């Protein structure tokens, strides 16, 4: 049986090499290299992340780019360029549209690789720069937990909605946030990651989650690919207008997802291997 995603990442971190030029390695939203370079990579695989009958080639390319740009946003980084490695199945004739989708956020496509593959596979790497990269590990008990935008929109749309990476918001939050990550797997999955990295517990008030039209609390808490930002802010910080307070970090270990009656809900987000 395959290990859960977080355990696999921990395994990779244990066997990864080390270099004096790597400031932050495996385990955050992106790697940080000397000089403030920030590098993120994500892969979309047909049949796992998308179905070609539901998304056209341009939308698939855009989704692959957005996943990486959102990781840069979570570090407070400004994008420099993208690289794309495309695995193309027999007869696929939409390479131009796919590549145009990757470049559709205005970040230059600087290179990559091409190969035949049994199913369409799009692996994008984003390169950016941050003066003060925000990690997952800086949160402190008492910090407010905030999210940008609305949650659950992807579930409601059937995962066909175009994503907006929160690069501007990430840069603004980097001025004050103690910790940050992007909500790619749902808040029920990603709050425990931030709390674990910061060595804290957390409380999330499910009724306070900002929900997209038509989204239930379960959609908002568990739905993946919203690519909004989750950040921890000092308790005396001004909360920007684009964000909503949904909970706080605590001294008490563990993560509690409390409904309106104060009862913990055992909810989980997306895990490729669960």
Summarize the structure.
By secondary structure, the protein is an alpha+beta fold.
Could you characterize the architecture of this molecule?
The protein is an alpha+beta fold. It has helices at 5-15, 57-74, 95-102, 153-157, 167-173, 187-198, 217-222, and strands spanning 22-24, 31-33, 37-45, 78-88, 109-116, 121-129, 144-148, 179-183, 201-205, 228-233, 243-250, 255-258. Helices cover 24% and strands 28% of the residues. The strands form two sheets. A six-stranded mixed beta sheet has the order 1-2-3-6-4-5, covered by helices on one side. A six-stranded mixed beta sheet has the order 8-10-7-11-9-12, with helices on both faces. Helix 2 (57-74) packs parallel to helix 3 (95-102) and helix 2 (57-74) runs parallel beside helix 5 (167-173). The termini are close together. The model has no long low-confidence stretch (mean pLDDT 93).
- Overall morphology: globular
Q: Could you tell me the number of beta strands?
A: 12
**Class based on secondary structure composition and strand pairing:** alpha+beta
In sequence order, what are the helices and strands, one letter per element? Answer: HEEEHEHEEEHHEHEHEEE
Query: What is the typical, i.e. mean, pLDDT?
Result: 93
What low-confidence regions span 5 or more consecutive residues with pLDDT below 50?
A: none
Share of residues in helices: 10-25%
List the helices and strands and how they pair.
Elements: H1 5-15, E1 22-24, E2 31-33, E3 37-45, H2 57-74, E4 78-88, H3 95-102, E5 109-116, E6 121-129, E7 144-148, H4 153-157, H5 167-173, E8 179-183, H6 187-198, E9 201-205, H7 217-222, E10 228-233, E11 243-250, E12 255-258
Parallel strand pairs: 4-5, 9-12
Antiparallel strand pairs: 1-2, 2-3, 3-6, 4-6, 7-10, 7-11, 8-10, 9-11
Helix pairs in contact: 2-3, 2-5
